[in-house]
Amino acid sequence: MEQKQAVTVNNIFGESISREDVLNEINSHPDTLNLFRSFVETDRERILLFLEGKRSLQILEDRFFQYVLRPDIAPERIESLLSAILGQRVSVVSPLPRDGSLIIDEGSQVVMDIIVKLEDGSIANVEMQRIGYRFPGERTNCYLADMTMRQYNNVRSMRGQDFSYKDMKPIRLIVIMDISSAEFRSVSPQYIHTRTTSYSSGASVTDLEEVTYISLDTYRESSQNEINTTLDAWLTFFSYEDTEHVCRLIEKCPEFLPLYRDIAEFRKNPAEVIGMFSEALRIMDRNTTKYMFEELKDTVADQAQTIEAQAQTIDAQAQTIDKYREALIANGIEIPE
């Protein structure tokens, strides 16, 4: 990491603008104003502070991600992220299109999805979810199977009769969750979850699929959010938007300053920021409602099963009491009412 340097809010986000000027700009666009008024007070305040140049915005919108992490223009950024997560130096050869995927997530909770081909021929897919999907293992396996078959069809088409399964390269899926699902919250304070595969016999068999989940909510709850590694720096970048954390990150890792300045570029177009924010909230609200409904449905089902089990236990106990009563009567023992 580079040497520390003193940073200021203006140095990061550019020259500040008065709230009055920001509000005048918003008010000059009726559609933008209506969207802005539809936000709750806390969200309106976040946007105003960002447009004024007093804080960043957490990057939870696809256009933010594509702009800041753009592998075609600044591959060193996604390379740094992947290297930190995978624990090995990686180089991006090219971004890959999502075209052709057979997996479609209705009401997607995915806000960023970047697929890149690495120098060793392997494929890495980084996605961020606002709310972790239910059944993450099942979804991930379907997703990886889809990606594996896409690679198989592509390689087989290119190699023809010379094709060998040895030509198949690893597929690395990295899922970053802003709010993780119950499976991952249950193992807090662990926030990095990497799937490992082994065989009971100890046989060494190549597994093409590598999966890592990262729980940002658990990371934020950690009392030890020190920036000691590049991975710590990236998790801080994804997790916080307040000036205290932003300045601390840049002081420790100045290489993140250009990323924040890219984010600050959006201050020049308040209508675009408010439009993106509105769409992100709309999707998140819809998915949050769906997620909570499904969890509530499962809870009710579990409670119904518990009540049914308790009812069966009570019924069995009643039958046992009746048998004892009949036995006592048969032996001439008087039973008080």
Characterize the structure shown.
This protein has a domain at 59-239. It is 53% helix and 12% strand. The protein has helices at residues 9-13, 19-27, 30-38, 41-52, 62-69, 75-86, 136-159, 182-185, 216-221, 230-239, 243-252, 257-264, 270-330, and strands at 92-96, 110-118, 123-131, 171-179, 192-194, 209-215. Strands 1-2-3-4-6-5 form a six-stranded mixed β-sheet. Helix 5 packs across helix 12 (257-264). The radius of gyration is 27 Å and the shape is extended. The protein starts with 8 loop residues before the first helix and ends in a 7-residue tail after the last helix.
Topology (elements, then pairings):
Elements: H1 9-13, H2 19-27, H3 30-38, H4 41-52, H5 62-69, H6 75-86, E1 92-96, E2 110-118, E3 123-131, H7 136-159, E4 171-179, H8 182-185, E5 192-194, E6 209-215, H9 216-221, H10 230-239, H11 243-252, H12 257-264, H13 270-330
Parallel strand pairs: 3-4, 4-6
Antiparallel strand pairs: 1-2, 2-3, 5-6
Largest sheet: 6 strands, mixed
How far is the N terminus from the C terminus? 83 Å
Tally of DSSP β-strands: 6
Give the amount of beta strand, in percent: 5-15%
State the shape. Answer: extended
Low-pLDDT ranges: none
Structural class: alpha/beta
Q: Mean of residue pLDDT?
A: 81
| Alpha carbon gyration radius | 27 Å
The strands making up the biggest β-sheet line up spatially as 1-2-3-4-6-5
How many DSSP helices?
13
SSE order in H/E notation?
A: HHHHHHEEEHEHEEHHHHH
Helix proportion of residues, in percent?
40-55%
